[in-house]
Specification:
single chain, mainly alpha, 53% helix, 3 helices, rod-shaped, cell membrane, transmembrane, 7TM_chemorcpt
Length: 66
């Protein structure tokens, strides 16, 4: 950490603005994982994979009535 005996760093408005702009906001679910586009991509991929599996192992539909 940098020692600021004269309070020049604390009183520097440009530095304060830079720190506020560069601060990233991260949303998490109880700290377990981040809520971002990676999570959305994983959910869509999982749903698509499950749909393909259900379609492949589903019962065949009979078009012709016998």
């Amino acid at each position: 950490m940098v020692e600021d005996n004269t309070n020049d760093i604390i009183n520097n408005e440009k530095l304060k603005l830079h720190i506020m702009v560069k601060k990233e906001v991260a949303f998490t679910l109880c700290g377990y994982f981040n809520l971002d586009y990676t999570l959305l991509h994983s959910i869509i991929t999982s749903i698509t994979s499950m749909l393909f599996i259900l379609i492949q192992f589903g019962e065949p539909i009979s078009i012709i009535d016998t």
